[in-house]
Amino acid sequence: MSRLDYTRQEMMAIATGREIQDGELAIFGVGLSMLAGFFAQAHHAPNVRTMTEGGVYGATPVGGLPWGIECNRISTNATSFTNAIDALGFLVASGRCDVGIIGAAEVDKFGNVNTTGIWEGEIGHHYRPPKTRLTGAGGANDIACGAKRTVIMVTHERKRFAEKVGYISSPGYLEGGDARARYGFVGGGPAAIITTLGILRPDPRTREFELESWFAFSSIEEIRANTGWDLKVSAQARVVPEPSEDELAALRRVDETGALRKKG
User: N or C: which end of the chain has fewer CB within 10 A?
Assistant: First the structure.
């Protein structure tokens, strides 16, 4: 059992960063997804080719975690500094991007993500304004459609884990099974949903997400209680290894200002 002091957000970022392999072309947005990506670069994937949806390619953060997709902390030493058309319309849409990290306000059992709004009841046949307007998809829809695989990061709360999202901002496996393949997306779909409590992965046949592993401070019972569908548990479900000293040090070198070192 680790005696290191770390937060749930830090554990989620490290678990997500472990998904990135050296040499891959990876795209990620702001906040925790950027922390996870640049942690991987700092720890085990020094040759990862990083980019943001704004077109900043091949950068390493300077002076702390970037606050945005075109922040001076990553644009100052980037290999190239172009635009979203190059990043999303060329590299991602063509299927060249190996992995993308996206966030979610709401996610369902097939990995469909909603970041558009919260409605009372079904939207119906005609779009109507939501009760609560969210931030929108940004580049996440492009990443979800075009990246070879995506990783979804989300706080594990019951209100965020729905049987079916109210609106699909970024597609996962749609209604499950081979539905995604029928739509002809270039990208392969979500490989994992990594939360503040554990890791979910899709069943290879049904594409329904199941609990693969949980963090040392959590439990199967806590995760199922905070999921809005009858979450299945993999027969091989296990505890995720806690952060090592090297991993935590690398993470905090990236987030040297402590901007995302929240308790919880």
Answer: N
